[in-house]
Here is the input.
Amino acid sequence: MGLFSRRSEDATPGYEDNAALRGFGGYEPADAPRAQPKRIRPKPKPLKWRRAPWFGLVFIALVAGVLNALGVGKPHPASSSPSPAPLVATPSPRAVVPAVVAGWQSVAGRDGAYAYDIPPSWEPAPATQHGWDEIRLVTSAFLGKDFCARATLGGAGVTTEPLADPEAAARKAATDLSAAAYGGTPQLSPGPDAQVTKTDGTAIPARIVVAEVTPTDTGECAARHALVAAMAFGDGSGTSGVVVAYADSDRSGPSVREDLVRIVRSYRFVPAADRSTTTPPPTTYR
Here is the structure.
């Protein structure tokens, strides 16, 4: 698993991605992010940060434009100088791995050492970290981007828990996310058997927990019912890796429960031969 280095194509102060949890199975709890995620207000709304390298430059340009327009109260003659060149942002290369669930798309860690799959209706955001005080997730994905103006219908990501027992780790992650994202007390039940495939083809046992939550918030955009699926696995080192997926169960389609379980079950470590790198095209800002 991989956790959290600042990517030039992502943005907003207060968040960063450190993609490859180096250590146990590709992740390392000690590699904690330097920025702390902020709790959403109201509590049941998940907070999502995105980074854009051009934000600072655009903001400066806007301020400069306003000051120039003010012109200390006096009009200025048109300048004969050429217009400034447009700002071009060149994204950093990203790892690409094939999906293992037919018709789905993969979400890979920074170096492609691990990945999980999401349905076509979800949006991969591998360089995004999101979360709350109780739990933070990296290598993210989201459902229903900008739902109800600013929220999302669901999300997914990976983290670690300082617990050797995978079932205890999955239960803790599901409970923490339920309380942080929805403000409710979850009803936990065991999910189907699972395992995580290592790069050498061997498998390690994993445990899945599914939580049903009745959120406490009653706002117009709040979920009436929500589901959280968490799968944890370990190698006896005292720390478990966890992949979590959650969603509004009333607005996310009839197969939402199955989708969340398939998302977490698809987590795997990726052999080097199955990884490739791509660089998204530059974006021009005028």
